[in-house]
Amino acid sequence: MTQSLKSQSSFTDEEIQSAVEQGPITNQYLSDPQKISSSLNRLRSMEITSYLQYKQHGYMAVSLLAPGLKTEFESHAKQELEHADRLATRIQQLGGVPIFDLQEIAGKAAAIGVRPEQGTTLKEMVIENLLLERRQVEAFTALIREIGEKDLITREILLDILGETETHASELADFLKRSSDTR
Q1: How far apart are CA 46 and CA 97, in angstroms?
Q2: In the chain, what is the straight-line distance between the N-terminal and C-terminal CA atoms, in Å?
Q3: Residue pLDDT, tens place only, 105-161
Q4: Which letter does DSSP use for residue 117 in this model?
Q5: Which of 18, 106, 154, 163 sits in a 20 to 30 Å window from 85, CA-based?
Q6: What is the pLDDT of residues 66-81, one digit of tens each?
Q7: In angstroms, rounded to a whole number, what is the distance separating the alpha carbons of residues 102 and 7?
Q8: CA-CA distance, 98 to 48, in Å (whole number)?
Q9: 109, 154, 157, 97: which is closest to 135 by C-alpha?
């Protein structure tokens, strides 16, 4: 196949080999793929930790006071897992390896101040989730600024996830505002 491709184009053997080895990483990619993969694994760890926290809160949020909260927690958990999957896909595209070791995931998340919390009341659970979402907003914003124009695809993925994360934070804050108004 390489012989027929080579005879039909002006690509050298070195260019073909480089394309195979580097995949989407071209000379126009201005960042360090290994560094970006490492940063994405940290963010992915946050997303997985968030997923676990939302799932736990979803199991615990059985309440007549806020019947929609359990559904909201479950919906947010699903989105957190989707974020983690999108980050894993990008890590792989950059030639990295998404981490799956639970201790490493917990360690990376804890290193940036993210630990699953388990409040005893619905209000505490919502506050914990809000604080976790705000930490994610900060972490995603920092990496987006660091990347700038050097990795456009990763930046686009992060901006999309950031938008959803800010929506989560807004929804949680709104719930807390509404619940304090009714007391």
Answers
A1: 16
A2: 72
A3: 777 777 766 666 677 788 999 999 999 999 999 999 999 999 999 999 999 999 999
A4: -
A5: 18
A6: 678 888 999 999 999 9
A7: 49
A8: 12
A9: 109
139, two tokens: 């972490």
Q: What's at 4, amino acid-wise?
A: S
pLDDT of residue 90 exceeding 80, the answer is: yes
CATH assignment at residue 41: 1.20.1260.10
**Total number of domains in the chain:** 1
Q: Does residue 57 lie within any of the structural domains?
A: yes
Neighbours of 60 (CB within 10 A): 16
Structure tokens at 141: 């914003």
- As a residue count, the chain comes to 183
Q: What is the DSSP code string of 21-68?
A: HHTT--TT--S-HHHHHHHHHHHHHHHHHHHHHHHHHHHH---SS-HH
